[in-house]
Design goal:
The structure is a homodimer. Chain A is α/β, with parallel strands linked by helices and about 140 residues long. Helix content of chain A is about 45%, strand content about 25%. The longest helix of chain A is centred in the last third of the chain and has 20 residues.
Chain lengths: ~140, ~140
Amino acid sequence: MIKIKILSIGKTKEAWLEEAIAEYEKRLKGKVFFEFVWLKTDDQLLAAAEKENFVIGLDPQGKMFSSDAFAEFFHEQVIFAGSKISFVIGGATGLPQKFKTNIPLISLSLMTFTHQMTRLLLVEQIYRATEILKGSNYHK
Amino acid sequence: MIKIKILSIGKTKEAWLEEAIAEYEKRLKGKVFFEFVWLKTDDQLLAAAEKENFVIGLDPQGKMFSSDAFAEFFHEQVIFAGSKISFVIGGATGLPQKFKTNIPLISLSLMTFTHQMTRLLLVEQIYRATEILKGSNYHK
């Protein structure tokens, strides 16, 4: 079982988003377990992230991947981190410089998405990665 | 009033997606009107797209933009096209080569998203573009 913790600021108010994420959680049941942690400020986000064992940052300066390349990256990180990975979603201005020098950084797009959509896209790309790795037709 | 037509394959089944898109439609009421056209096959998609006055393709080979640059691009295209723009969302393999040589192509990400999420992201980026252009704080 892979354990993914996603740390971000704010709290979702949109029911549609919870529904969308719940759909992927269901599909990944028994394989990937998601935990969502909500922080109120950048400082709290960093304090929480620093306690995590293995952290990947989502930041505008991060590396962009195709979904195939992300699947490979994700697989490597899962092995490296012993199946426990935390993702930290930075705000519109990204994560603080001092924090992000020591962790792998990824970026979903040159575009800025809302925190909420970023969370959904990340969950969907993790689902997509598991489908790519098992060779299903989901991603085609 | 800007009229945006979005042509894609399939038909959404997800209630959450309709809810999310409806939220942006509401925010853009009186400013941007969206029409969604669903086609069954690639051939039908192309036939429909060819009838449109001004078409922008979403394709993996498309140009990627930051949200700020997209706002500028969108604004230029709206002026150029007389406020009527159609977006065509290609499948996972993109749009057919012969079609896409004559139209502007954009790409939201190196990653592949579902048709549905692409549609939502496009609507959200158009909303974001209007907010960027009017100098609001939405995108910050």
